[in-house]
């Protein structure tokens, strides 16, 4: 069971909180083993939208597999907003030092900066406060105009709805693109938001286009990436000919449908290998009959 701890700060934006919370709540409904915990320095936390929320004053015991997320708050400027005690900031630092993942949405990146977690790392935040974040934390490398950035288990997102993209990315990395696609469909959101080349998820990296036919095919491949999918079946799902699908898919993504599926398989296999699986076991898990093709694709990438 993975614990997702959301640290609530006065003035928080409801969607900064609700977006990631909904992703992991839906993941729990699908049996992926998540439990949410809301903590704060005060029980009743006012929000930017006027609806107060209640949180626990207690911190649960965390393991390296658990996630700690700081949703953002209303901040025309970062200075003087988002108050957090030094003891709370130490919680962020200690979780990361123990091997855990720490994430933020929007202005929450400033809390990570005050905890020292942005020093020497790439990060991002809402475009309205990017310049100020860079001034306040000069040792950080602020990446502008992207949805989220991951650097050594520190993940920051641009703000508001991009918290959903951040959470879907974490699901895709931990459980594969099919799981992230199922959650996106359950939430009635498109898993098609783009970021920059540092995004680990191929599913999100190749969604920066407006072709509905190609998105439908990607939805199918995302869900069944470990299956053998014929071009004819994919074309039927898109309602176009095989030749038209290949042309439109390549124009939209720079890849053929087969190459896109291979990227998803290789990415998932790399994650399994990083968690201790053998190359042979990872190859079978993602749909290859043996490890030879996986080895060739990993060398190619």
TrEMBL record:
Domain HTH araC/xylS-type span(s) in chain numbering: 215-301
Gene3D superfamilies for this protein: 3.40.50.880, Homeodomain-like
Keywords: Transcription, Transcription regulation
CDD domains in UniProt: GATase1_AraC_1 (cd03137)
Alphabetical list of InterPro entries matching this protein: Class_I_gatase-like (IPR029062), DJ-1/PfpI (IPR002818), Homeodomain-like_sf (IPR009057), HTH_AraC (IPR018060), INH-QAR (IPR052158)
GO molecular function, one term: DNA-binding transcription factor activity
Pfam families membership: DJ-1_PfpI, HTH_18
Protein name (record): AraC family transcriptional regulator
Organism: Peterkaempfera bronchialis
Highest classification ranks of the organism: Bacteria, Bacillati, Actinomycetota, Actinomycetes, Kitasatosporales
């Amino acid at each position: 069971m993975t614990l997702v701890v959301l640290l609530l700060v006065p003035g928080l934006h409801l969607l900064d909180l609700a977006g990631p919370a909904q992703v992991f709540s839906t993941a729990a409904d699908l049996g992926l083993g998540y439990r949410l915990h809301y903590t704060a320095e005060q029980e009743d936390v006012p929000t930017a939208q006027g609806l107060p929320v209640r949180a626990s004053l207690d911190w649960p015991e965390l393991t390296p597999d658990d996630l700690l997320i700081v949703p953002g708050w209303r901040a025309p400027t970062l200075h003087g907003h988002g108050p957090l005690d030094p003891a709370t900031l130490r919680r962020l630092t200690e979780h990361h030092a123990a091997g855990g993942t720490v994430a933020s949405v929007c202005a929450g990146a400033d809390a990570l900066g005050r905890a020292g977690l942005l020093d020497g790392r790439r990060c991002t935040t809402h475009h309205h406060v990017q310049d100020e974040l860079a001034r306040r934390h000069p040792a950080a490398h602020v990446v502008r105009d992207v949805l989220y950035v991951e650097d050594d288990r520190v993940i920051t997102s641009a703000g508001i709805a991009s918290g959903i993209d951040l959470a879907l990315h974490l699901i895709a990395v931990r459980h594969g693109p099919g799981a992230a696609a199922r959650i996106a469909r359950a939430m009635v959101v498109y898993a098609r938001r783009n970021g920059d080349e540092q995004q680990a998820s191929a599913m999100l990296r190749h969604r920066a286009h407006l072709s509905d036919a190609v998105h439908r095919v990607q939805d199918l491949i995302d869900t069944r990436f470990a299956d053998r999918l014929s071009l004819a079946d994919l074309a039927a799902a898109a309602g176009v000919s095989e030749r038209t699908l290949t042309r439109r898919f390549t124009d939209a993504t720079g890849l053929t449908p087969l190459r896109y599926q291979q990227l998803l398989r290789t990415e998932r296999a790399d994650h399994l290998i990083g968690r201790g699986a053998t190359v042979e076991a990872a190859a079978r898990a993602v749909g290859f009959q043996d490890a030879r093709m996986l080895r060739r694709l990993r060398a190619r990438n």
